[in-house]
Amino acid sequence: MEHKKIHMLKESIEELFKKSDEEKRVLYESIEMLWLDASIKRKKKEVSFPEKLDANILRIRQLLAAAWLEDLKE
Q1: How many CB atoms lie within 10 A of CB 68?
Q2: pLDDT of res. 35
Q3: Do 50 and 56 form a contact (C-beta atoms < 8 A)?
């Protein structure tokens, strides 16, 4: 009888660890998605449209450089 209780306790602890790992994974993914969303929203607010042609060309170059940098990070 005592052996059965110990076995049930062991199974319960293992199940708790599995659920905990799953919950941590889901929480991590949620935080990552919130961080990405916040980053995108922040970048949208920083966008400005210069009026001069030279400034437009410079802005396009900056955006391309930023995009290439992001690609290199991956």
Answers
A1: 10
A2: 74
A3: yes
pLDDT mean by block of 10 residues, the chain; 74 residues: 85 88 83 74 59 71 80 68
How would DSSP label each residue in 4-73? HHHHHHHHHHHHHHHHHHHHHHHHHHHHHHHHHHHHHHHHHHH----SSHHHHHHHHHHHHHHHHHHHHH
* Cα 59 to Cα 4, 42, 72, distances in angstroms: 70, 17, 20
| Number of C-beta neighbours around residue 59 at 10 A | 14
The identity of residue 53, as a single letter, is: L
Looking up tokens 């961080």, which residue turns up? Answer: 35
